[in-house]
Amino acid sequence: MSLVVAVTAPGSQAGAQEIIQLSGEDRLLDAEFEELYRIGRPTGEAWEQFGSVREVAFDAMGRLYVLDSQIGTVFVVDGEANLIREFGQEGDGPGEFRSAAEMVVMKDGRVVVLDLALRAYHLFDGDGRPEHTMRMGGIRRTRLSGITWPNTATAA
Fold first, then answer.
1. Which residue has the higher pLDDT, 11 or 71?
2. Phi and psi for 131 in degrees, rounded to 5?
3. What is the DSSP pairing of strand 73-77 with strand 64-68?
4. Per CATH, the architecture of 46-140 is what?
5. 13 has a pLDDT exceeding 50
6. What is the mean pLDDT of the chain?
């Protein structure tokens, strides 16, 4: 395989190009990773039996956050793979999700979870307690098989 790249240097004439020939040799890149710990087992504790891990993130203290979107729960695990806490669940109340899709862990340990069905962001404090829910504005749209149409019904 051969790749030719044409590069125009800044300030040079528009027609001037440098031709670079890359070798066609493929090389296997063999990465070695150090396993810190392993979580999730089909025969482990109930919290270790993840259904659909949607997001993972670390906070500034090295704790791992795992969003299991199947049950709408965030699990917080320490550096020894021990469960510290869990928060969130399916539902419509404070700190509950209909469709937890994405998660961001901030440096101070607060967590934001995107709930697609409620069209909202849920903010949790560093201990996993719900602080605030921020709804998205605008017209709700539904997409099905490539067809988009406005949906004026609001999420409860």
1. 71
2. -105, -45
3. antiparallel
4. 6 Propeller (2.120)
5. yes
6. 81
Report the pLDDT value the prediction gives residue 5, as an integer from 0 to 100: 47
Q: Cα separation of 72 and 100, whole Å? A: 6
Q: Please name every residue paired with 100 in a beta bridge, in sequence order, or none if there are none.
A: 115
Could you give the CA distance from residue 156 to residue 119 in angstroms, rounded to a whole number?
10
Contact 112, 128 (CB under 8 A): no
| pLDDT of res. 139 | 58
Q: What pTM was estimated for this model as a whole?
A: 0.67
Encoded tokens for 79:
């550096």
Q: Strand runs (DSSP E) across 52-91, as ranges? A: 53-58, 64-68, 73-77, 83-87, 89-90
CB 5 within 8 A of CB 16: no
Is it the case that residue 57 has pLDDT exceeding 80? yes
Give the DSSP per-residue string, 129-144.
Answer: -EEEEEE--S-EEEEE
Residues in the chain: 156
Distance CA 63, CA 43 (A): 23
> In the chain, where are the structural domains located?
46-140
